[in-house]
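Design request, tokens follow.
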């Protein structure tokens, strides 16, 4: 039986704290979380690196995740070939 990935395991609400997002990222095992609005629309993305940099800047774990997210992530279109997406992200390769 093939393994499947459930995207719902890496979703956090825009009103969540940085600490909560850290827990979601840790359990999700892909190093990031998708931040969504109350209407379940993509609001941004946060990575473990974003959180690490925020902590180094002195931002509290109790701050809202919306304070540090990337609100303009690169998004692949549904059905877009992975290699095409890779070439868009890394045009020099």
């Amino acid at each position: 039986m093939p393994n499947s990935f459930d995207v719902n395991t890496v979703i956090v609400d825009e009103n969540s704290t940085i600490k909560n997002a850290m827990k979601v990222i840790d359990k999700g095992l892909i190093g990031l979380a998708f931040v969504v609005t109350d209407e379940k629309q993509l609001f941004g993305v946060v990575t473990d690196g974003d959180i690490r940099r925020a902590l180094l800047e002195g931002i509290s774990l109790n701050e809202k995740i919306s304070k540090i997210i990337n609100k303009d992530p690169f998004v692949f279109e549904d059905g877009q070939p992975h290699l095409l997406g890779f070439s868009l992200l890394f045009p020099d390769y």
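Comment from the thread starter after seeing the answer: thanks! Residues 7-89 form a domain with the CBS-domain fold (CATH 3.10.580.10).
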